[in-house]
Amino acid sequence: MIVCDKKEGLFTLHTRNTTYQMKADSYRVLLHTYYGARIVGGDLSYLVRYTDRGFSPNPSEVGHNRDYSLDTLPQEYSTCGVGDFRIPSIDLELEDGSRIADLRYTGFEVKKGKYSLEGLPAFFGDEEQAETLVLFLEDTAAQVGVELYYGVFEQCDLITRAARITNRGGHPVRLRRATSLCLDFQRADLDLITFDGGHVIERCPTRTPLRQGVQSVGSVRGTSSHQHNPFVVLCDHDANEDYGLCYGAAMVYSGNFEAAVERSQFESSRLVMGINPYHFCWPLNPGESFTTPEAALVCSTCGLARMTHQFHRAIREHLIRDPYHGARRPVLINNWEATEFHFDADMLVSIAKEAASLGAELFVMDDGWFTNRDSDLSGLGDWVVDQNKLPGGLEALVPRINDLGLRFGMWIEPEMVSEDSQLYRDHPDWALRAPGRAQTRGRSQLVLDFSRKEVRDHIYQVLKEVLSSANVTYIKWDMNRSLSDVWSAGLPANRQGEVFHRYMLGVYELLERFRRDYPDLLIEGCSGGGGRFDTGMLYYTPQIWCSDNTDAIDRLRIQYGTSFCYPASTMGAHVSAVPNGQTGRCVSMETRGIVAMSGTFGYEMDLNETTPEEKEIIVRQIEKYKAYYDLIQRGDYYRLTDPFEDGPYTAWAHVSEDRREALVSLVTGTMHAAPPFRVLRIKGLDPSFCYRVNDGEEVYPGDVLMQAGYPLPMLKDDYQPFQLHLKAE
Ligand code: DGJ
Predict the structure, then answer these.
(1) Does 505 score more than 90 pLDDT?
(2) Is residue 128 annotated as a catalytic residue, yes or no?
(3) How remote is the CA of residue 258 from the centroid of ligand 1, in Å?
(4) How confident is the model at residue 584 (pLDDT cuts 50, 70, 90)?
(5) Stretch 153-158: mean pLDDT, rounded?
(6) How far is the CA of 283 from the centre of ligand 1 (A)?
């Protein structure tokens, strides 16, 4: 609910459990007055304190009132060059060379339903589900207007934000920074949690108390990156899964981002999130506007689990679009780890046949299906089926797969080109590359300049021919390197600061074109696993390959970190062969199964090479996943232990929204001799229900299972799995 008091300049956003408030003061400076537990309302600006602070300057209109300084006030969208020395939200360069943005409130607008952002991913909600507030700010000297957008999703406790900057004057200006979100707190006793790592070790949580100065994570790789996820949490020092105030913030963007928190000299703190200012410069001619990507906020007053549940709900209900919003995802078999580039049609069909007999639903042909692609040195860009590997093309292969009762899907990497390709020979200038410089290779490939429409049009046409040649129902959209040599032949020298963002807009535009022309196509995002795992991609690709690391034990950590923001229905997770390709570790088929089952489930191995006993296990796993699909993909996810702590096991649970059903999973760590008997305390159950365990004789009240716990059997082996299904009577 949005409550506006025009006379007082007071704007209050209420969600089910939270309240967010801003106030335009008598100088029309927009102050941030409150974000936290839901309160009745009233004017919270009494919390804003004024005092003379040395070296904190005062705007001219306050005269000699030294108590009033932008340097000390909590601001809604921080200014630049006028006395607030903390992180700015905007950096404007005017024609005269000045770098000042002094924003004052001028008005507001409220609309039913959620705003959308042209060309950009964004949460959506109809008139029943969401409301929009727009606040208008202006720098009168620069004649630049800023519209601050707020989307309020009451049920999910979600508040989205974006900003639109317009040059209303007669001279060009240059935008060097424009954040999506600025959030000021009049306290600094907070912890920052970021989700960090690298290729094959993505999204490991790092938690540190705020220290004076700026702490930041971000990416300048052209993708959101494996190194830092565009999702951060600020929380009470003592916040845990079940207790404490937590603020989660996610960028709905897949390119360069920055999330920076500053703890000031006065023990206040500020979070800003937006496009990374690195190599960003956007000229605005008179009348032109720039719209930032969206950022999404969830505040939980009772710990990290609630924050997670609200993000999961918001992503499932208001970000993943039809037809995959709510739809079941197929159990897939992917041939990559089984064959890499070396396969032919018969090999693929034999893998598919075995998978179909065990219960899989979709066969995915990975990299290596197109001409001149026997290694990663060549072929990208020439999207023509290799007739040597697949005689008769997809027209011949796909019916063979469909006849087995499987749907067919395939891998593509549209943004890339190999130097050894016809496309590159014909259009060397279509790759990002600075004039007069040798190119930097990544996985021996170059990046196509997706900021250029003609490049995207060409790729779309060639891929369209392939997709239209057969019954293709799924694509895995891969992206296997970071952007370097970022220079576009399509833009003049003074507009090269647009290329990183225009590249991302180009990727979104092409994804949207596929969605429009192939509305039933399921697109799985991928960037060497989880290098572009963000809410921006999820708007187009309802699931994303979580990591190239398929080792079940490493996956416990990767999926744990990922779960803080992203629901199971978005996390591609497959059972692969042992010894594992990344770690050399051998764990049982059961263990690999229960870990992969907590995502969008599949197999990535040659199932012909499994033993009859393993095949039986696989049949049961797939049956179980199908039976518990709704519970896993739509239930509330509870992290019961932290796999980064050296505990005896990692445990998690999926609990249905009505709390009548739960699937509890556990994998032991490294065990030692003479282990004690252990008890697992479960979360999320209804204390007043009685739950039957695994359809057997055991029945326990919910409060007993949550407070006293479930007595685990003696688990002696390393990496041993254990699962409990609870059903309310
Ligand atoms: C990287 C992906 O993450 C893998 O799953 C696989 O598709 C390879 N690329 C193929 O080149």
Answers:
(1) yes
(2) no
(3) 27
(4) very high
(5) 98
(6) 37
Average pLDDT value for residue range 169-180: 97
DSSP states of 278-343 as a string?
Answer: TT--EEE-TT-EEEPPEEEEEEESB-HHHHHHHHHHHHHHHTSPTTTTTPPPPPEEE-HHHHTT--
Q: Which atom of ligand 1 is nearest to the CA of 545?
A: 3
What CATH architecture does domain 638-728 belong to? Sandwich (2.60)
Which of 534, 551, 606, 636 is catalytic? The answer is: 534
Cα(411) to centroid of ligand 1, in Å?
A: 8
Same fold flag, 2-318 and 638-728: no
Contact 259, 217 (CB under 8 A): yes
Cβ–Cβ under 8 Å, residues 355 and 333: yes
Token code pair at residue 241: 């899964």
CB 697 within 8 A of CB 691: no
- pLDDT of residue 326 exceeding 90, the answer is no
| Cα–Cα nearest to 619, from 630, 604, 607 | 607
Structure tokens at 155: 């049920």
- Per-domain residue ranges of the chain: 2-318, 332-412+453-480+521-635, 638-728
Indicate the SS3 state at residue 494.
helix
Ligand 1, residues 411, 481, 576: which to mutate, most atoms within 8 A of Cβ?
411
Determine which one of 614, 630, 686, 718 is catalytic: 614
Q: Has residue 481 got a pLDDT over 90?
A: yes
- 614 as an active site residue: the answer is yes
Q: CATH assignment of 2-318, given 3.40.190.10, 2.70.98.60, 3.40.50.1010, 3.20.20.80?
A: 2.70.98.60
The preferred substitution site among 476, 537, 548, 603 for testing ligand 1, maximizing ligand atoms within 8 Å of CB, is 548
Does 3.20.20.70 match the CATH number of domain 332-412+453-480+521-635? yes
Which residues does a 6 A CB cutoff place in the pocket of ligand 1?
336, 366-367, 411, 478, 480, 526, 528-529, 545, 548
pLDDT at 325 over 90: no
Can you tell me the distance from the alpha carbon of 105 to that of 10, in angstroms, rounded to the nearest whole number? 11
